[in-house]
Amino acid sequence: MQAFTVKTPSSLQEYLLKQGFKRNRIRQLLKYGSLYVNGKVVKRYDHPLVTGDRLSIEIKKEASKEILRRFRIKLLYEDDHIIVIDKPPGLLSIATETERQRTAYYIINEYLKQKNERVFIVHRLDRDTSGVMVFAKTEEAKRRLQSSWHNVEKIYLCLVEGRPEKKEGIITGYLKETETFLVHPAKGSVNAKYAVTEYRVLKEGKDYTLLEVRIVTGRKNQIRAHLSGIGHPVAGDKKYGAKTDPFKRLCLHASNLSFRHPVTGRIMRFNSKIPEWGKDFQII
Fold first, then answer.
1. Of the candidates 80, 96, 134, 59, which has an alpha carbon nearest to the alpha carbon of residue 263?
2. What pLDDT score does 20 carry?
3. pLDDT at 63 over 70
4. N or C: which end of the chain has fewer CB within 10 A?
5. Is the Cβ–Cβ distance between 210 and 232 less than 8 Å?
6. Are both 106 and 190 inside the same structural domain?
7. Which pLDDT tens digit goes with each residue over 268-284?
8. Taking residues 218-223, what's their average pLDDT?
9. 163 to each of 230, 250, 274, how far by Cα in Å?
10. pTM, to two decimals
11. Residues 200 and 122 placed together within one structural domain of the fold
């Protein structure tokens, strides 16, 4: 709840603009019935304010979460410093040259705007990868999370084509991104980055295997490139050599994320349930 005492007569919109609110934000507040003058809901932007009026802003929980529901984003956790979500597949993490609004960053930013808060990107998931993502609500929280990101435990579930010979293993090597945005092994290249991926078999089917994967490093497309490199691309990942697409999506899911809270220092653990492809692959 935010509250203001009017000192100079003006219209509601004029007053809020002077307080630093943007016009889009004011429209949202009016739409959701979140503005009160002397305890009564006001829904007209030109409502007259007089000296001594008490203006309050109350964000209704259901209204504020409407945009999250619209884009199928599940809110896992939120406090004054961080916000953790379960991102659906098909949603970009941040904007590109061709897409600005249908991104997790944009949607979370719009959600937080309703509470006069900001969002800062900490890490990314590929567009077609689903699962746990954390955002910061302050620059300090972002800086602390990113500076300690090498200590964050990141576990994924993925369905790969075929059956790996070893039930568990470690994949290492240098990876480089080409001009066509494909990541591939490139030992000795100046721009290549060393990557370490650990995996273990959870379940085996006739044509597919369910893996638990832990990334020690966080390189772009690391899991997809490494698994493709050992001959077991992620199902549905035609970019990295998959020959099948049984579930009409990339079968890669960020299932667990564990890190130390950037302010309290408490260990935070979050998980997202395995998608249907992780349960149904043995019957296809």
1. 80
2. 87
3. no
4. N
5. no
6. no
7. 999 999 999 988 877 66
8. 92
9. 11, 18, 20
10. 0.79
11. no
Residues 98 and 176 reside in one and the same domain: no
Q: Give the active site residues.
A: 126
Has residue 267 been placed in a domain? no
Domain span holding position 205: 153-254
Whether residue 13 lies inside any domain: the answer is yes
Residue 240 lies in a domain: yes
Binned at pLDDT 50, 70 and 90, residue 133 comes out as very high
Question: Is residue 78 classed as helix, strand or coil in its secondary structure?
Answer: strand
Write the CATH number for 44.
3.10.290.10
CB 6 within 8 A of CB 55: yes
Residues 6+ apart with CB under 8 A from 102: 71, 91, 92
Three-state secondary-structure class, residue 16: helix
pLDDT at 11: 95
Query: Which pLDDT belongs to residue 180?
Result: 81
Instruction: Tell me: do 46 and 89 sit in the same domain.
Output: no
As given in the structure block, the two tokens for residue 174 are 């240098």
Task: Provide the number of structural domains found in the chain.
Answer: 3
pLDDT at 100: 61
CB atoms within 10 A of CB 213: 24
Which residues touch 66 (CB under 8 Å, ≥6 apart)? none
Residue 121, pLDDT above cutoff 60: yes
Instruction: Give the number of other CB atoms < 10 A from CB of residue 182.
Output: 13
Query: How far apart are the C-alpha atoms of 9 and 53, rounded to whole Å?
Result: 9
175 and 242 inside one domain: yes
Residue 276 CB-density burial (10 A; 0-12 exposed, 13-18 middle, 19+ buried): exposed
Tokens of 256: 């667990």
Q: At what angle do helices 104-113 and 23-31 cross, to 10 degrees?
A: 70
pLDDT reported for residue 96: 73
**pLDDT mean across residues, the chain:** 91
> How many angstroms separate the CA atoms of 128 and 125, rounded?
8
